[in-house]
Write a structure and sequence with these properties.
Strand content: 5-15%
Number of domains: 3
Shape: extended
Strand order of the largest sheet: 2-1-3
Structural class: mainly alpha
Oligomer: single chain
Number of strands: 7
Distance between the termini: 88 Å
Number of helices: 15
């Protein structure tokens, strides 16, 4: 009768498996601890004090998470804050971060218990089916992804990545996968990010001496029927200005150019300088001056805005709270179109959206519209400065009024 003994190899396999179970348990506990800490970081605004406009950018730039990993943990943090039961389900491995993120938008006070019970332990496909039954087909998530394609003219093939056909209706259908493959396209993963986020800085690459590749972007979003009617109308009106054909890219590029021409601070400042030069030229012709452009000063009496209205250029002692557009543009250019908040270690906030003109000395405390008293701050850091000056409770009451 032989004795059942474990061979050294078998013992190593069992120990490896037990060790792996221990590590996964520790990993799960660490993830929950991270989520718990994010709650406190959000509450104390640690991310803003560290120079970040949002908790999302803090997780990516400061903690080193990928965009997907940061999103999963932030969604879990917010969902647990609202539905504390979720934390136990994560701890018991009945729910994953991915599943929680998928269902978080569908949880309500009436259905959250039943819905969580339905999705616990289910695969992604099963969860998708449950959500489809619950809310039907949802609009596509807005997304911009970076791609690399062969530059036009280098291969004789050309590309069709303008999200529309060159010879087709103004609606423009997306090219098929086979068309993209024929053009020599390949995805550059994982350079994918939602609209409104910072652009990746990866330079274009060259594969050989005969083909040059260029960096482009694929845009994905859905629109309403009213949006489609507006697009078709605009495409028809622009058709005579687009001799190469009406494509979605061409239509939107013209619209973007027109918006920038009216609203870009740098272009508005160029127009102001041109107007000052013309005025100086006329004065020179009349013998009142040499006709040279005078440098802009804070004492410029008035300037014409894009709407045709005249307003004070720069006022050191403003009579009204509204900051003149010329001053706003000057601050925007001076600060580089970016939040100026700096953390204690000198790290400057990277946010370029939802920027506000902030008074260093608040208007309510006697601050002026002088350029040295103005700065660009993102919405989060503008709120942080308001809380510092007036107290969070006071600001919260003002918002409710």
């Amino acid at each position: 009768m032989s004795c059942a003994t474990s061979s050294p190899d078998r013992l190593a396999v069992d120990q490896l498996h037990e060790r792996m179970l221990l590590l996964t348990r520790q990993e799960r506990e660490a993830t929950l601890a991270v989520i718990d800490h994010l709650v406190e970081i959000q509450s104390l605004r640690v991310h803003q004090r560290r120079g970040h406009s949002s908790l999302y950018s803090y997780c990516i730039d400061e903690l080193g998470y990928s965009r997907r990993a940061a999103h999963l943990r932030i969604v879990a943090m917010r969902t647990i804050h609202r539905w504390p039961r979720v934390r136990r389900l994560l701890e018991e491995r009945r729910l994953t971060l991915s599943t929680l993120t998928a269902v978080s938008d569908s949880l309500t006070p009436e259905n959250y218990r039943a819905l969580l019970n339905r999705v616990c332990g289910k695969s992604h496909r099963e969860v998708d089916q449950i959500l489809a039954e619950l809310r039907g087909v949802r609009p596509a998530r807005e997304r911009i992804s970076q791609i690399t394609t062969v530059a036009k003219g280098d291969s004789g093939v050309g590309t069709k990545l303008e999200l529309g056909r060159r010879e087709g209706s103004p609606t423009g259908e997306s090219p098929s996968t086979s068309d993209s493959q024929k053009a020599g396209n390949k995805s550059v993963a994982p350079a994918e990010f939602t609209s409104g986020t910072r652009q990746p800085q990866t330079p274009a690459k060259t594969t050989d001496n005969t083909r040059r590749v260029e960096r482009r972007y694929r845009y994905e979003f859905s629109g309403s029927e009213a949006f489609m009617r507006k697009y078709q109308k605009v495409a028809s009106l622009m058709s005579n200005r687009l001799p190469a054909g009406v494509t979605i890219e061409a239509v939107f590029e013209l619209l973007l150019d027109e918006h920038l021409e009216r609203n870009d601070p740098a272009r508005r400042e160029q127009r102001r300088r041109a107007r000052r030069a013309r005025v100086q030229g006329k004065n020179g012709d009349n013998g009142n001056g040499a006709g040279e452009e005078a440098p802009p000063t804070d004492q410029t009496p008035c300037e014409t805005t894009g709407s045709g209205r005249s307003e004070p250029a720069v006022a050191s002692e403003p009579a009204v709270r509204r900051i003149p557009s010329a001053v706003r543009d000057r601050i925007h250019l001076r600060d580089g179109g970016r939040c100026t908040f700096q953390s204690p270690d000198g790290e400057r906030c990277k946010e370029t959206q939802r920027l506000h003109i902030d008074h260093v000395i608040p208007w309510a405390l006697g601050g002026t519209h002088a350029p040295e008293n103005l700065r660009l701050l993102c919405a989060g850091h503008n709120q942080l400065q308001a809380d510092r000056h007036f107290g969070a409770e006071h600001i919260a009451r003002r918002r409710q009024e």
